[in-house]
Amino acid sequence: MAKFIDLNADMGESWGRWTLGADEEIMPYITSANVACGFHGGDPHVMRQTVALALRHGVAIGSHPSLPDLMGFGRRVMDVSPQELKDYLCYQTGALREFVRAAGGGDLQHTKPHGILYSMIEKDEPLATAVAESARESGKELILMALGSGKYDRIARKMGVRVASEGFADRAYNVDLTLVSRKLPGSLITDPERAAAQAVKMAMEGKVRTIDGVEIDISVQTICCHGDTPGAQKIVRTVREALDRAGCQVKPLRDWLPKA
Q1: How many CB atoms within 10 Å of residue 95?
Q2: pTM above 0.90, yes or no
Q3: Most Cβ neighbours (<10 Å): which of 13, 57, 64, 72?
Q4: How far from 180 is each of 56, 93, 186, 211, 227, CA to CA, in Å?
């Protein structure tokens, strides 16, 4: 039986005259692109260019919405209500959807919250519910990427949302399967071979080794490499090549993920 996996990366996070990431080098190796929508990175011109780049390489496109924190790159906690969060998500995803439509690319494949919001919804059930509601209201085919074996993954599935559980090749894990804080040493995996080994282990064995050396079960349908990790282009290429060698069918989620 074929083993399918999706490989995603955060794209389009440059803004104005500020450039971040190596989108041109990374895009050929991924199958899904999480495109910044202006609140933590990206701007209308970068969004248009990133959509065009993804379509050129046959990469599925999804929104990567954030809290409104451009200066903090969406990595600072903010006090927001569930309705405010839904408005932020609708605003950003809608903008990207129009760029995709205008480029003749059909509809969005997925949405994935960015930065600190991704962590906040693991701890705050009303916010997690708001994210799931936003995805559901955006269209029944839209896929929500959620932390594999996490709280909001379970909440979204119970609500009937189409969910893809996500693992990370370039981030270290705690024993509760949360990601190690970026403020702590060892939180980022910058060695391409280590990142590739972690990705293959998750995809093929359904396991991940934590920062403490404990091996834990994890179920994932998509694996992320961050576009702003140092040496990201080499990490992504090495991860993709390792998955291919391991016998994974690396394809966009839209091609194989069951409907909700």
Answers
A1: 17
A2: yes
A3: 64
A4: 35, 28, 8, 8, 18
